[in-house]
Amino acid sequence: MQTGNRMFRTEVVAGWGQLPEGQAFGYTHGIVTDSADNVYVLHTGKPNVAVFTRSGEWIRSWSVEGIGDNAHGFYLQKEQTGEYVYMTDCGLGTVVKATLDGEVVLRLDPPDLPEVYSGEKPYKPTDVAVAPNGDIYVTDGYGQHWIHQYNAEGERIRSWGGTGRAPGQLKSPHGISVKLTDGEPELYVADRGNHRIQVFTLTGEHKQFIDNDMDMPCSFYFHGGLMLFPDLHSRVTVFDAKDDTLVAHLGEDLLAYKQPGWPNLPKAYYRANRFSSPHAVCVDSVGDVYVAEWISDGRITKLRRL
């Protein structure tokens, strides 16, 4: 089964990524690839990270202390000392950096901002990005709608945001990424509740809104001059990263998110080449696409680039 268009066409790889007996996916929230093209899936089951080869064979599973039932953000960073994953738990307010075997090497303290956070106004981090200089950016996508910048040692530098639609204001800044394709690096924020992308400098200055050809952007993945992002309302969108214009929608289903009970629909509804609630996307070294969906018992799809 195929999906896409003549500019970006893919086919579904049937049956990719099966867990061994005794393990089961929870909500599949994050997916990343390492330099060997192994694929890591973050989900809310236990253990909550599953590792596969690019052909779909299970390698191992592991968990990290402090990442539990609300495991959410997942980002892989290649650094001089190796490769690391950054993870968030939006229920526990946890952000950690770990090795590819799950050893924690850094924990970020919640932002000390009493004017923003209290018992009635919790901190709920949803995603992480890392700049070329090592600074770490965390989105509070389910709490008070802020972005927090830390240095590589975990010391907070600055914060900005707050709920609203004006430049610099946010409503569910669900995902964040550093765009490196042209000129100075920029922060791309999936301002999901406002149905738009918001672009900032690395110091938090608003640059522009992008709101064409998208619905509810969740996060970003840059690869080969393209920017891919899951639209929670039932498709994966591909943009030309140079000018942020539409290349293709993958697996678009205009009815899925309108169904009663969405995102947990009857199994008979799902089709291999149509998405229901895509939440994360990544691309391997040969251009194949992996999609994780926000569904209670998980759904992972591999799309082979044609």
From TrEMBL:
The GO terms describing molecular function are: zinc ion binding
Q: Which InterPro entries match?
A: NHL_repeat, TRIM-NHL_E3_ligases
NHL repeat copies, ranges: 123-153, 161-203
Tell me what this protein is called.
NHL repeat containing protein
Q: Which taxonomic lineage does the organism of this UniProt entry have?
A: Bacteria, Bacillati, Bacillota, Bacilli, Bacillales
Annotated organism of origin = Paenibacillus solanacearum
* Keyword vocabulary terms for this entry: Repeat
